[in-house]
Structure to design on (188 residues):
């Protein structure tokens, strides 16, 4: 490593900011927040088809969007947003129980470790995306960075672990979401 590059600085900033934010919020709040997003996605998959008639009744939106698939996707987004907002009300209530106890310092310390790990995962995902998408055009500032050299081995290991059928998994879940539309499925 000859020098500290801009990419190294950006990666370090992402890791530190993620750690500091998680320290301020605490591990339990971070955990409940992630759980809230997971629950919200599940709720949106379950209730999106039920919300389609409501989306069709929204003034102005019913004139812009008329297709069944588009209406189902918009209802998914509405249900997801509503569910995330509802879950975000309960997250502080539950995490404040820990903040007011003797476990607060442990919660904050674990929060920092979790946040730093999350930041490192974000950087690793960015390096994986770069190594997969920038095949024809490489950028020397990225390739010469310490972060790229450190995470490149991880990215190749990560790529080998990923299943090859991710596009089919996405299409299968999309087909399940819009199954009430009576449209042919997407062929890959």
């Amino acid at each position: 490593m000859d020098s500290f590059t801009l990419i190294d600085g950006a990666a370090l900033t992402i890791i530190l900011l993620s750690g500091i934010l998680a320290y301020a919020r605490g591990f339990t709040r971070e955990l409940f927040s992630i759980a809230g997003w997971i629950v919200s996605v599940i709720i949106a998959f379950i209730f999106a088809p039920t919300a389609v008639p409501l989306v069709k009744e929204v003034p102005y939106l019913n004139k812009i969007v008329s297709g069944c698939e588009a209406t189902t996707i918009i209802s998914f987004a509405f249900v997801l947003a509503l569910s995330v907002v509802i879950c975000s009300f309960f997250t502080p209530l539950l995490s404040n129980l820990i903040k007011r106890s003797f476990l607060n310092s442990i919660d904050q310390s674990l929060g920092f470790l979790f946040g730093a790990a999350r930041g490192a995962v974000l950087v690793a995902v960015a390096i994986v995306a770069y190594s997969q998408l920038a095949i024809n055009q490489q950028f020397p500032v990225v390739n010469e960075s310490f972060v790229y050299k450190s995470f490149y081995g991880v990215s190749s290991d990560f790529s080998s672990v990923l299943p090859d059928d991710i596009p089919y998994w996405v299409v299968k879940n999309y087909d399940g979401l819009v199954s009430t539309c009576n449209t042919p499925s997407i062929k890959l």
Remarks:
- Helices lie at 6-25, 27-56, 61-64, 68-99, 104-133, 140-143, 146-161, 166-177.
- The chain has one domain: 6-163.
- The chain has eight helices and no strands.
